[in-house]
Amino acid sequence: MSRWVVHIGAGRWQLAAITATKKRGYLTLAVDGNDKAEGLELADEALVVDITDEQKTLRAVIKFFEKQGISPKGVLCIASEAGQLSAALIRDHYDLPGLSFEMAKKLTDKSLQRSFWSSEPFSPEFVIIDLEKRFEIPVDLQSEPVIVKPVDSAGSRGITVIKEPNAQALENAIKFATDYSKSKKAIVERYIDGQEYTLESIVVDGQTYPLVITEKHKVHGTNGTVANKLASANLSDVMSKRIVDTVSKGHKLLEYRNGVSHAEVIVDECEQVWIVEIAGRGAGFAVSEKYIEFCTGYPYLKTSIDFSLSDIIDAPTKLEVLPSCIRFFESIEGTLEEFYIPSIENVESASLFEKGTVMKQATTDADRMGYAMVKGKTQLEYEELLRKVEESVKVKISVE
User: Where does the ATP-grasp domain start and stop, copy by copy (predicted)?
Assistant: First the structure.
């Protein structure tokens, strides 16, 4: 029996998964396009390949295992949007458990998702722009606020919010979005003004099991596209159920029956729930790696690995979500000299940039100096701890 597990993506947020599979006794092959990716050294073997190129990645993995004379046991792509299609193509080739290529396309392409949801009340008006074809933006999307996004990117990259549309602004936003799109496609949607939430869940045999709903807090000056805090949502049971039911309907329309899910939604002033997107992976930036288990006790990372190795996920039992958050400290223009959070009970923190890193003003979710996860037994205890963290964090930045 093969003891090899392939990890597509070998950056910071894949290290825990590589370590976990090694502890289970598996040999690990890490694949990443960045030859400096930390997981390449951690794994037993490594390949430097552009994981956004599915065919190139597949060929490299096939060549590796042909030399070994065996096939892999499983393929993992934890908390990485970029490698989802490559991982799925390898699974299909070796007939392995986990997301198929067809399902991975549905869960990474916003234009496909909108096509499946086009008649649903939770999906706003939209148009798909293909730069290689002639296109025309509907009149109603030229006269009201819109958001322009790549159809196949993540982490707030390539996004523009246009409050007062005009031809030049739309052209610039579409060009910006397609610069971040592998397919050179953008989606123009009616902008929904409201509070954004995420739902982290598990889907088992077509049923959606919620783990935690978080409320997104955004960085000022980014048009609401960059988050600096995800806090456990203090919602009524009715509203929580409405969010879960809406995302569950989204899963069903995509025919997503088994796996992990990271969904983003907006609740407007009329309390209508709108789906922004659904991903068949855990969220990055320590959310799937640490935060979900930190606030619920549910072993989310273990479950993600189990799904990709056995195609079986046990449905979670009723969970208690502690008042909590993961607080991100966004980058500021300058050179980072120090980022430090003292040790505090019920707080876990980490620096994401090395000393001497030249930073820019935050424009995407990747622009973060560090984070702190905070939880309390009560809302008041949690809020007091968070205030203590924010008052005690030490940041030193030099500006030339």
Answer: 112-309
**Is residue 58 a part of any domain in this protein?**
yes
Provide the domain count of the chain.
3
- Contact, 335 vs 398, CB < 8 A? yes
Domain range for 207 is 194-398
* Position 114 in a domain: no
Please enumerate in sequence order all residues whose Cβ is within 8 A of that of 249, keeping only pairs 6 or more positions apart, or say none. 120, 122
Q: Give 315's DSSP letter.
A: P
Residue 115 counted as domain residue: no
The pLDDT tens digits of the residues spanning 158-207 come to 899 999 988 889 889 999 999 999 888 999 999 999 999 999 999 999 99
pTM of the model: 0.93
149 and 41: one domain? no
CATH of the domain at 160: 3.30.1490.20
For residues 244 and 389, membership in a common domain is answered with: yes
CA distances to 69, 173, 394 from 62, in Å: 10, 39, 48
Q: How far apart are CA 278 and CA 198, in angstroms?
A: 10
In the prediction, which pLDDT does 80 show? 94
Contacts (Cβ under 8 Å, ≥6 apart) of 49: 31, 32, 33, 56, 57, 60
**CA 185 – CA 175 distance, rounded (Å):** 9
Residue 120 CB coordination number (10 Å): 14
| Digit-coded pLDDT (tens) for 28-75 | 999 999 999 999 999 999 999 999 999 999 999 999 999 999 999 999
| 35 and 66 together in one domain | yes
CATH code, 67: 3.40.50.20
Per-residue model confidence (pLDDT) at position 366:
87
Provide the 3-class DSSP secondary structure of residue 70. Answer: coil
Which parts of the chain are beta strand (E)? 4-8, 27-32, 45-48, 74-76, 126-130, 146-150, 160-162, 185-190, 194-204, 207-218, 227-232, 259-268, 273-279, 324-330, 334-340, 347-351, 358-359, 368-375, 394-398
- In a shared domain, residues 171 and 198: no
DSSP letters for 147-202: EEEETT--TTTT-EEESS--HHHHHHHHHHHHHT-TT-EEEEEEPPPEEEEEEEEE
